[in-house]
Design a protein that fits this description.
Number of domains: 1
Distance between the termini: 31 Å
Number of strands: 13
Radius of gyration: 16 Å
Shape: globular
CATH topology: Jelly Rolls
Length: 181
Amino acid sequence: MNITTTPIEGLLLLEPKVFADDRGHFFESHNDSRFKAAIGPVTFIQDNESASIKGVLRGLHYQTTPRAQGKLVRVIQGSVWDVAVDLRKSSPTFGQHFGVELNENNHLQMWIPPGFAHGFITLSPQAIFQYKVTDYWSKDHERCIRWNDPDLNIDWHFTGQPLLSPKDEQGGGFKTADFFD
């Protein structure tokens, strides 16, 4: 597995070694010992999967302390533009975001540690998105920042109005978000 740092400390891209031939391909999507050797002591407690049609935007979601979640995300089918926003007040990149295309061909994964908001928009006709999380969902700790917050000014690499859930339509502003110390 190749690990690439991003401009935001702690936010990493993981590229598995893919073995391909005329039958298809094989790769380890997760190897706990290699992941922990590269990232540190992380325990995943749940795997989630979503299917979305083109233009669906999910996010920007996060959970507050003590139920903050780290996420290891990847696309099984299709293509998405994936974004993480640094919500750690003590970070030199506080308020900055990083985006990358995750798709079925590049097999990239992104490690999003606790302290980040996360979202993605589906670029292909359909996408199947999978993520491992380090804590369970908690309604009391769940938060959402508006996808089009002017203070973040995220380029979603998509034209037109995205399809949003009612929860995402009511996301709050970045300036009023619950930040991490």
